[in-house]
Write a structure and sequence with these properties.
The complex is a heterodimer.
Chain A lengths: L3 E12 L2 E13 L4 E5 L6 H9 L7 E8 L2 E2 L5 H7 L4 E4 L3 H4 L6 H13 L3 H14 L5 H4 L9 H13 L5 E5 L7 H18 L2 E6 L2 H7 L2 E6 L2 E7 H6 L4 H8 L40 H5 L4 E5 L2 E4 L3 H4 L5 H6 L2
Parallel strand pairs in A: 3-8, 3-9, 6-7, 7-8
Antiparallel strand pairs in A: 1-2, 1-4, 4-5, 9-10, 10-12, 11-12
Chain B lengths: L5 E11 L11 E12 L5 E4 L6 H8 L7 E6 L2 E2 L5 H7 L3 E4 L13 H11 L4 H14 L16 H13 L5 E5 L7 H18 L2 E6 L2 H7 L2 E6 L2 E6 L1 H6 L4 H9 L8
Parallel strand pairs in B: 3-8, 3-9, 6-7, 7-8
Antiparallel strand pairs in B: 1-2, 1-4, 4-5, 9-10
Classes of the chains: A alpha/beta, B alpha/beta.
Amino acid sequence: MALLEVEQLTVTLQTQRGPARAIRDVSFAVDTAGTLGIVGESGSGKSMTAMAIMGLLPEGAKVEGSIRLGGEELTTKTDREMNAIRGNRIGMIFQEPMTALNPVHTIGKQVAEPLRLHRGMNAVDARKKAIALLDRVGIPDAARRADAYPHQFSGGQRQRITIAMALACEPSLLIADEPTTALDVTIQKQILELIAGLVEERRMALMLISHDLGVIAQNVQRMLVMYGGSVVEDGSTRSVFANRMHPYTMGLFDARPALGTPKGAKLATIPGTVPELADLPSGCTFAGRCAFTIAECHTTVPPPIEVGLGHHARCIRLDALTPTLSRREREQQP
Amino acid sequence: MNAPLLQVDKLVRDYTLPREKLTQPPPKVHALRGVSFTIEAGRSLGIVGESGSGKSTLARIVMALDAPTSGTVRLLGRDLNALPREELRQARRDFQMVFQDPYGSLDPRQTVGRIVAEPLAAQGATREEQRARSIEVLESVGLRASDAAKFPHEFSGGQRQRIAIARALITRPKLIVADEPVSALDVSVQAQVLNLMQDLQAQFGVTYMLISHDLAVVRHLCDDVCVLREGTIVEQGPPERLFRAAQHPYTRALLAAVPRAEPPE
């Protein structure tokens, strides 16, 4: 049994323009100590999926389907029951470390808080453990710095502190939502290495959400590509990178300026913009922006089609696509 | 004649911080420590560096939004900081700026038409001229004339950045300083905006001073690159050479830190 099993998850939000399906029929699983990446653009539903798992959906959101952690159903839990799980069995790291930290409490107190709350530790023991955690995530001179406030740290160090908080109760699942997007590349590298080291050392499962294909490529074994609230492609990272099948995945890869492309070369673009959730077509969410759209795409929800070992693409036009290699692959061929 | 488009010479900018101790002078931050470079017309320059390297301070000084502690910025031979106010206002038609955040840089209460025409209005152009030119530039960035009557909230992030670019283009500037113009955009939209910037370069002959933390973006648009670190240019050259055979250890570290979009074997 996988640690986290998400099955046919659909989330409907109440918006001013009526109900909008922010997540559509999303299914995936993460094994104990497994790593899963979710890649997509804004509005793709990648963060919403994480929020659904943590039970932090906005007011009035309707959840259908199932989310199980260690076999236990989470969708039917009350707020109070979820409070006992968040920060305890599920650790979380967000994009903005400054917003995730409370500016008026010392970092020692904030890292100790989950231990006091979930483990009922006394203040002295919790502080001791907090200092050990801060030391582990690479805060220099942790014993003394535990009494400092968030603003006294740099962005990278703040992210280290939120990682220490997330780890405090030794969660079995760590959800990292764009953990390095606000950081410089050299710091990003250090933080990702820290997360990878911790995940391995503690046998945690990792769910890493990012818009950056490079970050996904280097850090996870399996990946989902999301668009318009649905998973358009999933598979092992190696298989998806080597053999991208869905037109959206291809477009996403080709649109990235890469260090190797010569100056003056045109980037391939995906025409149009990511549609508003309320305006999404009822069939394939990528219909209309996709060059291979046929009438049926607008009306039929594409089923997952196995395109490799454990690698699926949701597209009814795969037959038309298969001979069309993506631009970069064509160029690489002799 | 033939003065370079932009000549930045030994630029220094110190910021004085609030006094910490009564007995000591207030501490200073040296944001720029003697930066010099030249941009010839038509050869776009990329400025690469991490946060705190002084990139944005440099952009503000080149735009004459901030004055250097010492050193000069010459645009077409004129020292921007020595110009009288009125002449500087007139000179601003030659250099315009595009900011990072397409949500924060457009006034939500003004129509797109007015936002785009503002640099022209500041130059004292007539209403008719403003209207005609704003429609012209909106069309050249791929928007419609009818969009002029709309408000910024009706547009997506990528479209807003097009509006910001249209505003920068309206005075037919020679230099556009773009501070992280695509870093707030999604990958697919980023590609559209980069292609547009490239087209405008060919069509109107604008030269960019592009500030970015993303080496690939700079590579895509620029003929020369400066790597800035702690207020000093550590390495400079055409991107092909810089990215293939970086000399300075910092440039190499920066390049090595970019995650490769290929899973490890």
